[in-house]
Amino acid sequence: MFIADDNILGRLENDEKAFKELVDAYYTPLCVYSVQFTDSLEVSEDIVQDFFVRFWEKKLYRTVNGKLKQYLFNSIRNASIDHLRKHQSFVFTEIEEHAYIMDVNPDDEVPEEQLARLRHYLQQLSPQEYRILMEVVVHNKKYKEVAAELGISVNTVKTHLSHALKYLRSCKFITLFSLFSL
After folding, report:
1. Which residue from 127, 140, 128, 126 is spatially nearest to 182, judged by alpha carbons?
2. What's the CA gap between 19 and 59, in Å, rounded?
């Protein structure tokens, strides 16, 4: 699902197609990750879009030290928390402390016990929510594609995805690593 970090970083300097590949590969996973903080798919989409614009225009890819994937997820975490600080009347101190202490490493193994819990929670979703979650998050399909396949509107896809993510978050279980380990 993700692209090779070193391959894409080397091509970004002179290749807009490489940037499009990067956005196509990471946009949805970064939005899903951001929803964990914002509880809003629309807000998360704005955060990720703004990040990618800055990343390209300010040539932030030149500053990436280490793994690109980790850089992207950490940047989105920070941008999501900054958004909450600016737009919420109260501060989520516990979320902030936990998120800033913990560096994201999307390559970590997920324990079998945690996968079993995830499967249990996924079974609690409606069939429509489950299918949309799988298509968008796991199979990295665009909202428009999923809407066409299911014969529903793009807004309905977003609503079902948002409900599924909120439910998983309410179970205190949603993590990007778990969703992508299926």
Report:
1. 140
2. 11
